[in-house]
Structure formats: C-alpha cells, structure tokens
Amino acid sequence: MLIFDFYSKLDVLDARLRQFSLTNATCTCCSTGHTDREGKVIHCDRKIIIQCLCQWFGSEAASEANISSTVADSLRDKLSRFPFQYWMFLSFTVPLVWAFMDQLAARIRDEAWEEAGALCFDILSRFFNVLPAVFAFTVTMVHAVQRVRCSRKAPLRWLCRAAVALLHLLPPLGSQLCNTLLENRLQSEALFFALTIIPALAAWRLCGREAKGAKALPQHQQQPRARPRWGTFGRTAPMLLRMQWLLGKAQELKEASPSFVVAGRRVQQRKLLADGGFAYVFAGLDADTGERLAIRRVLLQDKEALAKAKVEIELLSGLCDHPHVVRFQGAEIFQRGAGAEAVYIFELCPNGTLLAHIEAHKDQAKAQGRELLPYCCPCLEEKDILDVLGATAQALAYLTRLGMIHYDVKSENLLLGNDGLWKLGDFGSASEHSFDLEKAEKKALLEAQEFIHGRCTPMYRAPELADVYLRWKIGPKVDIFALGCIIFATMTGQHPFPMESTCGNITASYRLPPEATECYSSVLLGWLRGLLARLPAERPSAVRLAAEVERFKLGEPPAPAPAPATSSARPTKAAPAQTMAAPDASPWQADFATFSPVQDSVNGE
C-alpha cells in the first residue's frame, strides 16, 4: 500500500509539472497584494523569477516547455527507478534475528546440539533467504505494475495484491512439505535452506545496484552495475576504518614536528600555517641549506584521492620557474598504515594571501569609521590592483602556453612572495582537460558537471561552469572570469556573486558601486567588464591581458581592443545585457527599470 501510494503521488506531481504555466504561477507576495505587514508596497518575486527564466531559456514559452518536458521526464525517471538493494532487505530482518539468537543460545546451553543445528538452518533460511526474497519480489511486482502504461490500473493492482498474499504463503507451505518428507528436523531444515537459496539468489540478481528505470534509458545514461554487498557492516566497516585513520593522522600532524626526507631533501616541519579538509600547510626548513619552505601534507582517504595526487604531482613537475607561480620543489607519496599521504614542498610565501590583504584593508577602513556595507569601496589602491591583475594574467598566460587550466583561481590562492610579487598557487584542481559541449550528449554533460563539482569553487565559476547546459566551450577563459571576481573584490571588498545562489554566476550580472567609477580609472573598469563578460569569446585572453596591463603600467596608451570573436557554439539561452545590475546585497530592493526587455527568442526576433 505504501509503495502504491508513493507512485500515486508521483503521478500527481508529474501531471502538475506537465501542466505547468507561468501565467498560473503565484507567490506569497501575490496573495498579500504585494504589501508587507506594515502596508508598504513590496516587489513581486514572481516577476523576478520570470525575468531570470527568460534570461536562461530565452522566453516564457521556452521555459514552460523545458519544465513540462525535460524537467518532468528527468524527475519521473529518477523517482520511479527501483529504489532497493538486497542488503537493504537484509537489514530489515536484523531485529528479528536477535529473538531467534536467544533461542539458539538456550539450545547450546542445554547441549541440545541437533536442535541448535536445526535452529541455525531455520535462521539462515528464514532471515537470509525467505524474507529478503519475499520483500524483493513484492516490491518488484508493485514496481512492474506501476510501469505498465494503461488507463485503468486498479485491476492490475488487485491482482498484484493477490499475488503478494500467495507469495507470503509459499514459505510456510514449503517448510511444512520438507518436514513431511523428512522426519528428522535437522535434515528437513537443511533441505528447506537448500531450496530457499534459489529464490534468494534470484532476489540478489534482481536487486542489484543498477536501477530498473535505467533499462528504458539510452546505454550511455545507465548507471554502472556494481556487486551488491551482504549486510551494512561490510559496506561501512572500511569507511569507518579510513575515517578513524584520517582523524588520528590529522591530530598527529597537528601535534608533531617531524623531520623527514622528501624528493631527496631533508626537511624539518615547523608551525602550522593553514588547514582545510585533510590538507595541512606548514612552515618548514631545509635541514641542509637552511632555506625556508612551505610543506603541504595531504591525507589521501581513498584510491580516487591517491590517483588525483599522482596527477597533480605530474602536472607540478612540468612547471618551470616563473616569477608569478609558486615554485614547486618536489613531492612524494608515503604509505601510512591504513592510508597514504602526499607531501609537497614549495617556496614559502610568508606575506599572506590576497584575501588576507583585502580583509586587512577592510579592518583598517572599519577602524577609520567607514561604512563597509554593502561595499568597502575603494578597497585596494589602483597600483596594487594592477600588480595583482598583471601578475595573475602572466601566470595564467604561462599556464595557457603549457596547455593547462587552473580551475581554482581565487584570492586565497594568490600569495605575496618575499620578492614582493604576487604568485599563483594551489594546483590541486589544475588539469589539461577542456570541454567542447556544443553537440555533447547528456553523458558528456554529466561528466563535465562531475569534473567541475570536484574542482571549481562555486563563487568563482564562470557561466559555462555554473550551468553546463549552456553548452558553451569550457577552457582557459574560465580562469579569466575567476580573475574578474578577484579584481572586483580588490575594488569593493566584496565578491560580485554571493554564495547563496548561482543565478548571478549564470547570468554574469553584478552591480559595481558608483564609488568605483570615481576611485578607479576607466581603463581598469573596462578590463573588469571584459573579465566578467558572460560569453567566453568576449573575455580577453591571458596573454593579451598581461601585455595590456604591462603597457598601461609603463604609461603607454592601451592597444585598441580587437573585434569580439564569434563563437561557433550557438548559445542555448539568451545572454543578458551587460548593463543589467543585480540587487544590492543589503538592503535588497529590485529596480526593474534597469532590467533589459524580455525577448521572445534567443536572437530577439
């Protein structure tokens, strides 16, 4: 009954999605007449949401069609897949096993060995074969009936209930038949156990981890098949052991100050500088030369983390000395008991990160009595911003020549070296992979989405990273967009796209405070607009940007901007006008006068 009720509610939800219409959609503010408790007029959330949908899909009709077809199909496919695995059915029977274990202990205590053996076979057949198989076949029949496409399913459901009732009668009848054939209880229970192995194996096969709903999908969309596990302990024990090792090793790293050899160099570990996840950065010293070093120690919790560390070491080994890239001096992977550890050696940049410098300027402004909300503008001076912009652009240009994309450019990964130069660090997310998604199938989109999820910080994601269904090419221009987020923060003390939503990243809509136009040059503001352009083709390359910044710092006039390149990929969603401004962070009030008009198609025809 519960499963039938679940599918009935799923039918209702599916029908509502397929009949979805923006015209009939309302929000809470519509029911209150767009006034708050004090009687003040408030803006309609519905209008804002419709505006965003039009920006994403091109028009109201396109968004309605997408929700009623693609979204509805995807949701129904996910929710209607066969939800159970065999180990789940085993876990259902665990509480009942304990009651029979008490009886078994009593037989053993009385030395009634034949009765104890018969009870063991009874427990095995009842709770490891019969009950899981009955549960599995019951759910399978209900699932199969639900997937039958017909207008009247009531007779099928009653037939299914009758079959389930008959199925529950079969095990007792089989047990009674075995007792009739063999008078010895131990032999009869052993025979019944042998007979029930067959339906148990069939249930195991039936309830593999592959979803039943995936059979109706194309081959590339099906979930990979994996061996089911017996019992929850076999599934969780390795994970618990790894977590125990990780936590113990993490505490050991924080307390100890060891001396060890990495890549042929004897180094001494000193104080902890930073930590995050299972990565720890320490100040260190070369025991032979006295050179100050940064030691990064990463605990590798599984094979995937180990493979990722090996790829990172290979990429870092290909980096030559560059004035704006943190110098890599060697790495090694060590086996540590139940896990592994990767140890990296870099040059030490003791002057802090760019984020720390921005926060220090904000604290200084606060001490001077300046208002910091919503923006602390100006934050850094223009000459300091140009140093950051030029250094990062040169580092990205260097990576581009190597065919590498950083994928995690952010203010925390820019460090000020002893030589006074900003340096790009943390290449844990760097990769040589790019994606051309214009004609990609859904499997490729999902793979790109998974790749992005494990690498890119959400606040710094370019539109093509925040929404892979734009089908735009993912390449070096994603680092350029992240650099634009950094430059915006150096001007205003705030990030252009808050963490609460990816809507701002997808539409590349931000609001620059008017103080910025008074405090910074038009050239710098023009670079900022180019860096945060929504279309990748409209963003400058790192090579051109680095050259322009260098000329500007030398007092030479900036070179004329080249004509924007035309992308071969046709955007699936309309790009918003760059003049569109997002609402202030606090207080929040939408200004609809600044919104670009909604078009009925991507080309505005």
TrEMBL record:
InterPro entries for this protein: Kinase-like_dom_sf, Prot_kinase_dom, Ser/Thr_kinase_AS
Primary enzyme class: transferase
Source organism, top-level taxon: Eukaryota
Catalytic activity: L-seryl-[protein] + ATP = O-phospho-L-seryl-[protein] + ADP + H(+); L-threonyl-[protein] + ATP = O-phospho-L-threonyl-[protein] + ADP + H(+)
EC number: 2.7.11.1
Keywords from the UniProt entry: ATP-binding, Kinase, Nucleotide-binding, Serine/threonine-protein kinase, Transferase
Gene Ontology CC terms: cytoplasm
Stored Pfam families: Pkinase
Polar residues bias spans: 596-605
Ranges annotated as biased composition (Low complexity): 564-585
Domain Protein kinase residues, every copy: 267-552
Record has Kinase as a keyword: yes
GO molecular function terms listed in the Swiss-Prot or TrEMBL record: ATP binding; protein serine/threonine kinase activity
Residue ranges of the region described as Disordered: 555-605
Name of the protein in its database record: non-specific serine/threonine protein kinase
Protein's organism: Effrenium voratum
Lineage, uppermost ranks: Eukaryota, Sar, Alveolata, Dinophyceae, Suessiales
